[in-house]
């Protein structure tokens, strides 16, 4: 049986790195990318800023107080998507099976390459090719499964690479904190610590039944990961261009309230589709078609999102800017493009984080009883119409 060879690659401080490529004066300086107002949130920060305690998802006001000399920039997500696509193309052209897990993270299955070029040599050359052709820094780990390769990449960041050989997975993970494992969020980590489980080594020796009684199905998963076991395949990457929802009205109208409700409903449906397929969107486009068949569109680039309230907000704002005629509308639609794999990163300091569990519950109800079974009361009577 051929040993599995899974490489994980992660772009270092990706947003900041792109900004530095566009402005070399930022090199060596503490840089923070995110919302510029005090109510904004840090999307990314340079390693120089991290030494002052700045972290992603931190309120911008706090970040400014911690690092008073930081250069604060509003994110240019169109540029980030372009650079991400460049890296994706390089990996996709070279590796046989590629999974893009987020805008700046990639897995590649290189199983079998050892018989030809040598897996480690190939992976190293691929990483160097990305650095040379894009100017971006990227870290990498090669192991026998996705869990070990991802954990190892995080340990060697920034700008380094490592190989964990077959049979060394468990010993490599053993001394690390349980918080280093995937699926060990803040709540799970704290629960494990309350049980006296601080390291991966201790977790790997716990009875599976005890972990299952505490964490349910996740308990067995945690035990497997702690023991370096992970059979999760690399899902072949094939970029989906966009997702959209639109409807042709039964009767042309200029009723702003009704149209706003309809946009909100379409955005809800789009958000559900995005979350169910594991995508976030970096670009939202609103389309309207007038009764004279003139069609107009307007779009905005955003941070990767899939939450209903964010999609609704941007769609309504686009509508306000786009609808500038007193002409009846016959069609309206929303498109999500520049899709990236992954879930929306929600901040503990942002109201959106409080809605994360709510969206999960709503999606579960829709999965069980149908997409029209639950929704905002403001739009609920619109469930009778069917979008195209």
Automatic annotation (TrEMBL):
E.C. numbers: 2.7.7.7
Binding site for Mg(2+): 10, 104
Catalysed conversion reaction: DNA(n) + a 2'-deoxyribonucleoside 5'-triphosphate = DNA(n+1) + diphosphate
Site, Substrate discrimination: residue positions: 15
Broad enzyme group: transferase
Cofactor note: Binds 2 magnesium ions per subunit.
Cofactor field: Mg(2+)
Domain UmuC: 6-185
Keyword Oxidoreductase tagged: no
Catalytic-site annotation from UniProt: 105
Domain of life: Bacteria
Location in or out of the cell: Cytoplasm
Main localization of the protein described in the UniProt heading: cytoplasm
Keyword entries, A-Z: Cytoplasm, DNA damage, DNA repair, DNA replication, DNA-binding, DNA-directed DNA polymerase, Magnesium, Metal-binding, Mutator protein, Nucleotidyltransferase, Transferase
Similarity remark: Belongs to the DNA polymerase type-Y family.
Role of this protein: Poorly processive, error-prone DNA polymerase involved in untargeted mutagenesis. Copies undamaged DNA at stalled replication forks, which arise in vivo from mismatched or misaligned primer ends. These misaligned primers can be extended by PolIV. Exhibits no 3'-5' exonuclease (proofreading) activity. May be involved in translesional synthesis, in conjunction with the beta clamp from PolIII.
Assembly information from the UniProt record: Monomer.
UniProt protein name: DNA polymerase IV
Organism: Arcicella gelida
Source taxonomy: Bacteria, Pseudomonadati, Bacteroidota, Cytophagia, Cytophagales
Encoding gene, per UniProt annotation: dinB
């Amino acid at each position: 049986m051929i040993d599995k060879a899974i490489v994980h690659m992660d772009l270092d401080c990706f947003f900041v790195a792109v900004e530095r490529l566009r402005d070399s004066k930022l090199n060596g300086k503490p840089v923070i990318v995110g919302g510029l107002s005090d109510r904004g949130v840090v999307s990314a920060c340079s390693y120089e800023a991290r030494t002052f305690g700045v972290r992603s998802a931190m309120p911008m006001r706090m970040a400014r107080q911690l690092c008073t000399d930081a250069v604060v920039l509003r994110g240019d997500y169109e540029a980030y998507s372009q650079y991400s696509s460049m890296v994706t193309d390089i990996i996709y052209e070279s590796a046989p099976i590629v999974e893009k897990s987020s805008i700046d993270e990639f897995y590649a299955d290189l199983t079998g390459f050892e018989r030809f070029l040598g897996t480690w040599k190939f992976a190293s050359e691929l990483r160097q090719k990305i650095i040379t052709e894009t100017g971006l820094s990227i870290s990498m780990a090669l192991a026998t499964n996705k869990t070990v390769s991802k954990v190892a990449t995080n340990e060697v960041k920034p700008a380094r690479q490592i190989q964990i050989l077959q049979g060394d997975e468990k010993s490599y993970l053993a001394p690390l904190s349980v918080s280093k494992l995937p699926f060990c969020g803040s709540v799970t980590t704290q629960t494990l610590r309350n049980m006296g489980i601080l390291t991966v080594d201790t977790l790997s020796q716990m009875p599976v039944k005890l972990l299952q009684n505490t964490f349910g199905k996740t308990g067995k998963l945690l035990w497997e990961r702690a023991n370096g076991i992970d059979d999760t395949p690399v899902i072949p990457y094939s970029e989906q261009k966009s997702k959209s929802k639109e409807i042709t009205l039964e009767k042309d109208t200029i009723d702003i309230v009704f149209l706003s409700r309809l946009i909100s409903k379409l955005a809800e449906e789009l958000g559900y589709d995005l979350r169910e397929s594991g995508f976030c969107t970096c670009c939202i486009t609103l389309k309207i078609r007038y009764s004279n068949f003139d069609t107009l569109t307007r779009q905005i680039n955003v941070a990767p999102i899939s939450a209903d309230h964010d999609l609704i907000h941007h769609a309504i704002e686009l509508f306000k800017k786009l609808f500038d005629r007193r002409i009846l509308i016959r069609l309206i639609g929303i498109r999500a493009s520049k899709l990236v794999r992954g879930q929306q990163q929600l901040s503990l300091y942002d109201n959106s984080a409080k809605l994360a569990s709510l969206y999960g519950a709503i999606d579960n109800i829709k999965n069980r009883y149908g997409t029209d079974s639950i929704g905002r009361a403001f739009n609920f009577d619109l469930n009778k119409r069917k979008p195209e």
